């Protein structure tokens, strides 16, 4: 059957209408069918057509000879690349973040699965931080113009619905990244140190200034709070993660600029260690 880009002619009994695909994608309770200059939900269109007793609009509403329910599965079928995606850029109002699929499945409330610039948040916390009122995270958190409920309906995202089952990779209320922000690796045999001031995590070998694992006690795995005066000593911070980001975004115009940033990292490290040793 032909799938039109934005609209589909639909029929229920003797009544005809036009289905707006983008409106349907926002939820099956949205007014997405235009009939005589009036917008109706699929259920309302079924009732308007005199099929109220049927109570199965996915079967009674058709496009040609194809039931609307079958069309929905086709229209909302996730592409292979979407199914394999690990992260999704999402917004709620003006607030933007990155939703991590693995963390989303870590608990019955979707866990702290949305990473903003400053912290990890649950979907509910993300909605509250957006300062919007009367919001529902499934409807008001949007990916690619569509609410999260769409990704849940097509099983791109799924919630853990059983109290005895939890993700083995992360905890529901984990506040820091699962990977090193420098090398972007989740090597299980290497311990990550976590920053108390931001969501970042680091391998001991990747963090600058260097973190000596001998100073870490079993109950005090995060060393970074001891570096809270770092910016008081170092006026122009630079780190490997920033260099990597600038390389990926082609921000370096010359090789000299790249070399200068790398040298700045070592210079900052030396400056910080010198100041710390004098204290």
Automatic annotation (TrEMBL):
All residue ranges annotated as the Bromo domain in the record: 216-273
Coiled-coil zones: none
Taxonomy, superkingdom: Eukaryota
Record-linked InterPro entries: Bromodomain, Bromodomain-like_sf, SAND-like_dom_sf, SAND_dom, Sp110/Sp140/Sp140L-like, Znf_FYVE_PHD, Znf_PHD-finger, Znf_RING/FYVE/PHD
Gene Ontology terms, MF aspect: DNA binding; DNA-binding transcription factor activity, RNA polymerase II-specific; zinc ion binding
One GO location term (cellular component): nucleus
Pfam families: Bromodomain, PHD, SAND
Span of domain SAND: 1-78, 77-158
Keywords: Bromodomain, Metal-binding, Zinc, Zinc-finger
Zinc keyword on record: yes
Stored SMART domains: SAND
SUPFAM superfamilies: Bromodomain (SSF47370), FYVE/PHD zinc finger (SSF57903), SAND domain-like (SSF63763)
Protein name: SP110 nuclear body protein, tandem duplicate 1
Organism: Amphilophus citrinellus
Lineage start: Eukaryota, Metazoa, Chordata, Craniata, Vertebrata
